[in-house]
């Protein structure tokens, strides 16, 4: 049974940092692109970042480039999202999921461009609130 569990969210002031974790079980990270998504109240779910299987190539949404860093530890079956210089607009529930169709993250002009229909095994999410 495949399961993703997100953790690490919380309340942080603007300009602060957080590191989110996505613990995967029942799935080999080498064979799937793993994406981080977020959804704010009243807004559509947005793809934030992705790390490809095997190659580990990373991609980011334009809104987080230079501020967020995705990484993975295959031995721990965990994908991380290091978030820095956080802004109030980063407030959302953050989710991770696996792309069951692509090993390499889908992208356009070097920016993350996911096909949400290809993603499965969504976790319960972790809340990130950026506020003073």
Report what the structure shows.
- The model has no long low-confidence stretch (mean pLDDT 96).
- The chain contains no helices and 13 strands.
- It is mainly beta and 132 residues long.
- It is globular.
Which term fits the overall shape? Answer: globular
The rounded distance between the terminal residues' Cα atoms is: 40 Å
The main pleated sheet reads as: 7 strands, mixed
Our Rg estimate from Cα atoms comes to 14 Å
Please mark out the parts with pLDDT under 50 across 5 or more consecutive residues, or reply none: none
Helical run tally: 0
Mean residue pLDDT: 96
Helix content: under 10%
Helix/strand class: mainly beta
Write down the secondary-structure element order. EEEEEEEEEEEEE
Strand content: over 45%
Number of strands: 13
In quaternary terms, these chains amount to single chain
Précis, in short:
0% of the residues lie in helices and 48% in strands.
Keyword list:
13 strands; 0% helix; seven-stranded mixed beta sheet
Helix and strand layout, with pairings?
Layout: E1 3-7, E2 10-12, E3 18-25, E4 33-39, E5 46-51, E6 58-60, E7 68-73, E8 78-83, E9 92-99, E10 107-108, E11 111-112, E12 119-120, E13 126-130
Parallel strand pairs: 2-13
Antiparallel strand pairs: 1-3, 3-8, 4-5, 4-9, 5-6, 7-8, 9-12, 9-13, 10-11
